[in-house]
Write a structure and sequence with these properties.
With 122 residues, the chain is mainly alpha-helical. The chain has a single domain, classed as Alpha-Beta Plaits (2-Layer Sandwich), CATH 3.30.70.20. The chain is 40% helix and 10% strand. A two-stranded antiparallel ribbon has the order 1-4. Helix 1 packs antiparallel against helix 2. The chain starts with a helix and ends in a 7-residue tail after the last strand. The structure holds iron/sulfur cluster (SF4). Iron/sulfur cluster (SF4) binds next to helix 3.
């Protein structure tokens, strides 16, 4: 199960208002509470998506397309053609991007942004 259509609509409505009214520093934790029940129903497989840029970070097929990663690291994530999931479009190229992508990892409600342990920033 990739995601539920109702879940997607409600989540994106909340995310839209969070970004519009500049609540984005606080919103993801609130959104995580809303999604906790949904997450517990899902059983992510953790399979690495083929679209990921090669390197340290990647997204698995447990992604539900919420877009939180994109809002925190727009330079590193991209959405699929049908917007149903996101993937790592570009590995971090500097320490600032590394911080952004790690923040996205912390806030990902599906815990599907992974780090293979290699060093990506020199
Ligand atoms: S990788 Fe995580 S934060 Fe990004 S869209 Fe997927 S579930 Fe949301």
């Amino acid at each position: 199960m990739r995601r539920d259509a109702t879940h997607f609509t409600v989540f994106h409505l909340i995310l839209h208002y969070c970004l519009r009214f500049r609540w984005h520093n606080h919103c993801p934790e609130k959104v995580k509470v809303i999604l906790d029940k949904e997450v517990s129903k899902m059983s992510p497989t953790g399979k690495k998506l083929e679209e990921n840029a090669s390197g340290k970070y990647y997204v698995t097929d447990a992604c539900d397309g919420c877009g939180i990663c994109f809002s925190y690291a727009i330079q590193n994530f991209m959405y699929s053609s049908d917007s149903s999931y996101y993937f790592v479009f570009q590995q971090p190229v500097d320490p600032r991007e590394e911080v952004d992508i790690q923040r996205a990892m912390e806030l990902c409600p599906m815990s599907c942004i992974k780090d293979d342990g290699e060093t990506s920033v020199n």
